[in-house]
Structure formats: structure tokens, C-alpha cells
Amino acid sequence: MVKSRLIPVLLMKDGYLVRSEDFITHQIIGNPVHEVERFNQWNVDELIYLDISEDEVYYDQRNDTRVKSSLSMMEILEEVSKTCFMPLTVGGKIRNIQDIRDRLKMGADKVAMNTAAINNPELVREAAFIFGSQCIVISVDVRMNAKGRYEVYGEHGRIATGEDPIHFIRRMEQLGAGEILLHSIDRDGVAEGYDIELIQKVVNSTKLPVIALGGVGRLQHFSQGILKGGASAVAAANIFHFMELSDRNAKKTMKKDGVNVRL
What PANTHER family does the record tag this protein with (predicted)? Predict the structure, then answer.
């Protein structure tokens, strides 16, 4: 039986590790390079780095003025890959095949595409053909719109696409994607648990593995994402930074709840 995975997500903005809430508020909490050394000692199965910077050039978020930051995404990835001893997925600012090739060359095992998959679906087909479906993760940011329907958003959750997530994910599957990172914008940073209804709808509509993300505030939420939502893996960002021994205690809780996990 395939074991359920526990995956920390590290959000980077302008070269800094940040805490996110509702895709709008971002608080600097650490150094993205140093953080991976800590995760290597943890009982997690994979690691996801997502660059949510708005500009091509990074700026120092600690200053009110626009001071250029010293580390680029590729420099961070190069340093992280030197000490990361678990499967590593990297997302953010991927627009073409060369961007994917560069990230894999720098040590990433998989890449996560969001806006690029929305704007240029054929890139997914081409990437899957060149690198293999196992390398291609589609990061799907979903919010409940004013009509009470789930909708896919692009550009870091700012742009409504009019896309139904079920139809969008099915199309990504047909194009050759290998995995779905399903992120609930409404649950981002609120610590109220996963959007179980959303996860269930997606899981029941695709054969692809689904990673649930957004809303974890208690360790029991991880179990719910698997047992109630049906996700193949559960991911979170904030809880891993603010709860001591969150990885080990999460695995223990999941095991106690009946989830098949690697201890």
C-alpha cells in the first residue's frame, strides 16, 4: 500500500522565507537556505519551495525603500540542493522549457507550475514529453467566487480565470501532468483545517495524486486531509515554522488516526 506523504511548503518572497495569509499578508520568518538544513533532520517525506515574489528582481522586504536583494531564486535553489536529502519540488516564475531545465539542473526533482499552465497549457504537454510526467506538478490555487463556486486563480491568487478546478485539472491530466498541488486560497493562513469538500471533488475527478494545501492549524487536520478528503499527500507551511516538533508529532498523530505513513 502506498504511504501517505507529509510535505512542508516553504514560501519565498524576494529571497526571504515568509508566512502567508489569504495570499495577501506576508511576514518574514527566516532564511530559505538555512531552513532546509533543519528539515533534513525532520521526519518529512518531501519539500516544496514556492517563489511567490511579484517582481523579477528581488527587493529587501526589511526596508521601506526598494533595495535590491542579494539572492536570486536560482542561487537559493543551488544552495538548498546541496544540503537537501529528500525529494525537492520548486515552483515560481516558470514560463518555458528552459526555466524547467534550469531548475532540474540545479537540483530540483520536480517543478510546480501555476500561471504558466493557465496561460500556456501546451507547455505542460511539452514539459511532460521532455522531462516525464513525474517531474510536472500543477499548482492549482482555488477560491470560492462571488457566485459560490470554486474557481481557479492565477498570478499568486490575484487573477480570476473563470476556470472550474475540476475541468482545469482534468485538462492538465490529459496534457501529461503527474501531480496536483491543490491550494485553497480561502483557507490560507487561517488554521481552520483543509477545505475537505474541495479536496474530495478534485480527488474524485482525477487519477493524479493530489497534495492538499491550505488551512492546517492542528495536527489532526493532516489526518483529515487523507481520511476525509482522500488526498495522497498533505502539505502545510505555517505550522511547521511555529509548532515545535510538528513533523514528528504530525506523523504520530496521523499514525494514531489510522493513516498509513512512513515513521
Answer: IMIDAZOLE GLYCEROL PHOSPHATE SYNTHASE HISHF, IMIDAZOLE GLYCEROL PHOSPHATE SYNTHASE SUBUNIT HISF/H IGP SYNTHASE SUBUNIT HISF/H
User: Which residues, in sequence order, are CB contacts of 79 under 8 Å at separation 6+?
Assistant: 33
182: nearest Cα among 206, 159, 160, 148: 206
Domain that holds residue 182: 5-256
pLDDT given for residue 60 in this prediction:
56
Positive or negative: CA dihedral 151, 154, 156, 159: negative
Give the SS3 label for residue 238: helix
Q: Is 154 left (phi over 0), alpha (psi -120 to 50) or beta?
A: beta
The domain tally of the chain equals 1
Cα separation of 100 and 111, whole Å? 7
Q: Look at residue 120 and tell me if it is in a domain.
A: yes
User: How much is the pTM?
Assistant: 0.90
Asked if residue 216 lies in contact with residue 254, where contact means CB atoms within 8 angstroms, the answer is no
Domain membership flag for residue 26: yes
CATH of the domain at 32: 3.20.20.70
- Condensed to tens digits (0 to 9), the pLDDT of residues 219-229 reads 999 999 999 99
